[in-house]
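Re: beginner question about structure tokens

> Can someone show what the tokenized structure looks like for a real chain? I only ever see the sequence side.

Sure, here's an example I had lying around. Input first:
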Amino acid sequence: MQIAGVICEYNPFHTGHAWQLAEMRRRGAEAVVCCMGGSFTQRGDCAVVRKHARAEAALRGGADLVLELPLPWATASAEGFARGGAEVLRATGVVDTLAFGSECADTARILRVAEALASDVFAEALQSELVKGDSFAASRQRAVSSLIGADAEILSAPNDILGVEYAKALRGTALTLLALPRMGTAHDGGASGGYASASHIRAQLLRGDDAPCLTPEMRALYEAERTAGRAPVSMAALERAVLARLRSMDEAEFAACDEGGEGLYHRFYEAVHSAATLDGVLDAAKTKRYAYVRLRRMALSAFLGVTPDMRRESVPYIRVLGMNSRGKALLHEMRTAAALPVAVKPADACALSPAARRLMELEARATDLYALAYPDLSQSACGAEWRTNPVIL
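And the corresponding structure tokens:
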């Protein structure tokens, strides 16, 4: 391993993330490239602090180059999130290993489950489970268990699920997969031994409490953002804007946001016209089969104008959010090694293909909407995406 890659959100950057980056160095990585989601997250929520602050925290915490995972993939399910991130890292031409935190920390086991999911017999096994009426996740785990036995148990662990999707996304490529142990508590757990889950830390920040498991660098950056009126950010501040968008949509527009093709859009449309709050919409649309987070992603996609068709396309560019001196050297290598155009400054978008420019414009609109959730609305002027250059240390 020479150049390690990570697909992440760093929402926010905490001691577990810092440990992971340091562990990659201990295992031989000469540099670390992060592909990080931007203003909105895979859980269908706002990032708690803006992306350039999180990118700077990552650089100060051990990363060398931070690239952006574009919005359609950053807000996707595990499969889309993994595929988009793997595309970005692979397209750099310099990353040779994809590392990630894992509950089982067993790369071979994760690869076996990925092969089972990609096998010719999996689809039939899955269909025989889905007819029982359980959730997709439970049905998939039982289907894989029928093929390979106990290894399928890892499909109940969030980070291992992502690891399996990374393995699927890397099939047929030269990149190596590396599972690292996840430090501290469970994915949605509390704090233990100096580590805490990101969800626990976000809850602390949203309550205005101290968050001791932030890295010192992230703590200082977060406090600067809070003082400036730009943090903390949450979907709660956007609820009326989201509801206004949802109530203005017709049923066909909801159908365009439904990536499952199972008629969920109809339940969602009905829920929007019967509930008074966003949580009420999600509760009304939820069934045993549809996970709550899937509904949150669908609501966010409708609000932002992100459709499943966008995610079926390939990532069209590499966007730089931050770098240090080693990251600059990697960018120099990428001038000849990268398989996609590299946008360092916002003005570089002018030289992109029409499809890539449309994606950059979507990203810019999403950032403008994200800014409406700032505690100080005077900080939310439009156009920040076109004015903000990468963080350079």
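Each token stands for a local structural state, so reading them left to right follows the chain. The longest strand covers residues 31-37.
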